[in-house]
TrEMBL record:
It comes from Cytobacillus oceanisediminis. The lineage of its organism: Bacteria, Bacillati, Bacillota, Bacilli, Bacillales. This is YtkA-like protein. Residues 25-99 form the YtkA-like domain. It comes from the Bacteria. PROSITE patterns: PROKAR_LIPOPROTEIN (PS51257). The keyword Transmembrane helix does not apply.
Length: 300
């Protein structure tokens, strides 16, 4: 019996020495991840020792709910870059989860349990950590409908016969396109991207500038009965509160446009105004693509 006990103790010591967590090794979730129904999401951890990234590890993650029995969910993590390991995991629900991380290199095995609150996404997309919410999409949907309705009313007063039918068919197509969620997301991402760039360049949108732009657009909407009716149905206060936030972004993006116009004028002193605006717009679109590519954007 004594011999059996000693043998078991030695075996336990061997197991513990092979599966230990060095106090100098740090494992942490490197970026937020979310539960998406019937869809896998990307899980990432950063692994380091004495603040130095650990590379070439074999890493697995086992998920189990902290206070409920929903079984275990495992994923193998692949190294993305130095010390960052990622893998897809599909979880059944949001809540508090325990994540058992195993990292191996040769005969050395490190294990650590992380506690993490997995949340549901707060919107349709994340852009540099800022959510694009369902309310954002709803507002863009309404704004597009509003502008289409205004254009319809103008065309109804301008055209007759076949020309009017063609115009109405065009706006019917625009309304259908407006229902495309990806189109709405693209609009939001374009504007926010250039607003971020404007801030990076040191610009700001003052209250006076935003108020001035809002007054201009109010005057434009007040010219059309359909616009006044739709805004009233949407809710005047709600609409203009949303528009104020929107025009902060618009003012910021306009400052990037103005920078480009000044740059083009300086580089092309003999070019006419129309050509200047054309060249500036072309550079704006190129800058937009570059800016969007530089941002971290996730869709849900």
């Amino acid at each position: 019996m004594k011999q059996f006990f000693i043998g078991s103790l030695l075996l336990l010591i061997l197991i513990l020495s092979g599966c230990s967590s060095s106090p100098n090794i740090n494992i942490e979730v490197s970026e937020p991840f979310f539960m998406q129904k019937d869809k896998a999401t990307l899980f990432k951890v950063a692994i380091s020792e004495n603040n130095n990234a650990l590379t070439d590890l074999k890493v697995t993650a086992d998920f189990s709910m902290k206070n409920m029995d929903h079984g275990q969910y495992q994923t193998t993590l692949q190294e993305e870059k130095d010390g960052i390991y990622s893998g897809n995991i599909e979880l059944p629900m949001a809540g508090d989860w325990e994540i058992f991380i195993t990292a191996e290199k040769g005969s050395k095995v490190t294990e650590e349990v992380l506690e993490y609150e997995v949340k549901e996404p707060e919107g349709a997309a994340l852009i540099n950590g800022d959510w694009i919410t369902e309310k954002d999409l709803e507002f863009y949907l309404f704004i597009n409908k509003l502008h289409i309705a205004i254009s319809r009313s103008q065309d109804e007063q301008t055209y007759k016969g076949n020309a009017l039918n063609e115009a109405m068919a065009y706006w019917d197509a625009q309304e259908k396109m407006n229902e495309d969620r990806n189109q709405l997301l693209t609009q939001i991402i374009r504007l926010r991207s250039m607003a971020y760039l404007s801030i990076e360049k040191g610009h700001e949108a003052t209250k006076e500038e935003v108020s001035s732009e809002l007054e201009k657009v109010k005057e434009q909407y007040n010219q059309f009965d359909i616009a006044k009716k739709m805004i009233q149905e949407y809710g005047d206060q709600r609409f203009w509160e949303k528009q104020e936030k929107q025009y902060e972004l618009i003012v910021l993006s306009q400052k990037v446009q103005q920078d480009l116009i000044e740059k083009v004028k300086k580089e092309n002193p003999d070019v006419n105004e129309q050509e200047i605006y054309y060249l500036a717009q072309k550079q704006y679109e190129e800058l937009l693509v570059s800016q969007v590519n530089s941002l971290k954007i996730e869709f849900f």
